[in-house]
Amino acid sequence: MRANVSDLDLRLIRIFVAVAEAKGLSEAQATLNIGQPTISVHLATLESRVGFRLCERGRSGFRLTPKGEKFLVAASTLLNTVTDFGVSVRNMDKTLVGSFRLGLIDHPPARMVTQISSGISSFRRRNEAVRFSIAVLPPPHLEDLLSRGELDLAFSYFWRRLPSVEYHPLFKERQIACCGSEHPLFAKAGHVQAEEAAGYEWTWRSYPLPNGMVANSNEKITAIADDMDAVAVFIMSGRYLGYLPEQFSRPYINRKLLSALNAKVLGYDVQFEMAHRRQSGRNEVLLAFLQDLKVARRIDLH
């Protein structure tokens, strides 16, 4: 008989989540500090209460069932809510209580890191008990999480303009096309024209960049990467051309591992923005952090 959700034991749910995150019963033993037979009994008890199988476990290995995957999402949300509830109870005297989830693009510009850090520093001087977390993800993932309410604020460049998300421009960052020291164009770097560069193979992000200048044909994009470090690896191999933020590429250029092809011709600006979900009600933590961030941006010296 399927149990009422309110009757479920949080301890059993925590055990299931720990096993799912460890991807196996034996792997979860150290985290849970209980033996594998006991874990198995607890999982069976939970499955009996919910009325369906959560995971397959045995000689063939461990895997979540389709319902188990959905249950994991719901269980993780529940446990986060319980944690927030506990924080709220312990901090009834605080003005701001809860969690605040930030999102960042990989290798954010130094000025952005400085501003966010200053905003957090100012916020922590408030009468608050807020738990911060930061996720580093590609722009499309950040936008998706914002639209679903799984992030409170994100900093990146965006181009999809989701109707459920509100965008605020911050500053622009220069992107420049580079080649590695082993590339045929390295000797004439600084004077390469777009038509010549278009004839070589390029590396590009696994997601599109706004207003980017790339090879004339997608056939020339023969290497894909998820972040800037991976793009730099391809470029430094000497087999690909690619775009990197000017600030990010500078140390490599100084060490003569990379060179800019022609910053004036093969370069473009990216608009960095701050984004959050359009609010149907007041999110006091978000409003307070935005206020502190505004002060931090005002004192920025760049």
> Approximately what portion of the residues adopt beta-strand conformation?
15-25%
Low-pLDDT windows of residues: none
**Helix/strand/pairing class, anyone?**
alpha/beta
Q: What is the string of helix and strand elements? A: HHHEEHEHEHEEHEEHEHEEH
CATH superfamily of the largest domain: Periplasmic binding protein-like II
Task: Identify the overall geometry.
Answer: globular
Summarize model confidence as the mean pLDDT: 86
Q: Number of folding domains? A: 3
**CATH topology name of the largest domain:** D-Maltodextrin-Binding Protein, domain 2
State the name of the first-level CATH class of the largest domain. Alpha Beta
Q: Number of helix segments?
A: 10
Rounded to the nearest angstrom, the distance between the terminal CA atoms is: 64 Å
Q: Give the total of beta strands.
A: 11
Q: How helical, in percent, are the residues? A: 40-55%
The appropriate CATH architecture of the largest domain is 3-Layer(aba) Sandwich
The biggest sheet amounts to: 7 strands, mixed
Question: For the CA atoms, what is the radius of gyration?
Answer: 24 Å
Write the layout of secondary structure elements.
Blueprint: H1 10-22, H2 25-32, H3 36-50, E1 55-56, E2 63-64, H4 66-90, E3 96-104, H5 110-123, E4 128-136, H6 139-147, E5 153-156, E6 165-180, H7 194-197, E7 202-205, E8 221-225, H8 228-236, E9 242-245, H9 246-254, E10 258-260, E11 267-277, H10 284-298
Parallel strand pairs: 3-4, 3-5, 7-8
Antiparallel strand pairs: 1-2, 5-11, 6-9, 6-10, 6-11
Structural features, described:
There is one protein chain. It is built from ten helices and eleven strands. The strands form three sheets. Strands 3, 4, 5, 6, 9, 10 and 11 form a seven-stranded mixed β-sheet that branches. The protein has a two-stranded antiparallel ribbon with strand order 1-2. Helices cover 40% and strands 23% of the residues. It is globular. The model has no long low-confidence stretch (mean pLDDT 86). It has three domains: 5-89, Winged helix-like DNA-binding domain superfamily/Winged helix DNA-binding domain (Arc Repressor Mutant, subunit A), CATH 1.10.10; 94-170 and 272-298, 3-Layer(aba) Sandwich (D-Maltodextrin-Binding Protein, domain 2), CATH 3.40.190; 172-270, Periplasmic binding protein-like II (D-Maltodextrin-Binding Protein, domain 2). The protein has 302 residues and is an alpha/beta fold. A hairpin with a 6-residue loop joins β1 and β2 (63-64). The chain has helices at residues 10-22, 25-32, 36-50, 66-90, 110-123, 139-147, 194-197, 228-236, 246-254, 284-298, and strands at 55-56, 63-64, 96-104, 128-136, 153-156, 165-180, 202-205, 221-225, 242-245, 258-260, 267-277.
